[in-house]
Structure prediction request, 103 residues.
Amino acid sequence: MLREEIRTIGVKDIQNFQNREDVLFIDVRDKEDYELYHIAGAKNFPYDDMELWEKRLDREKTYVLYCERGSLSMMAAKQLLQKGYSVCTLVGGIRAIQERNLD
Prediction:
């Protein structure tokens, strides 16, 4: 059995995904960090509460997960992928967006 790789998107791809009805952005950081800055339209589902929110996800959607730098969202994505969800992560997390905005 082939292990499925977790798909990734870059900052430049965000807008294309935001325009899709079948995609939901999930910020897995804690509530305080989410409230300071997040991707428009993203839902805040903290990683620490994953066992509470993952069961409510719609299997018909694709989820783009992100965190501060990318490692926490990658762990969450691996768990969701193993359970049959369609997921991808944002390379570099929210920091990549902030750094790109400084250019």
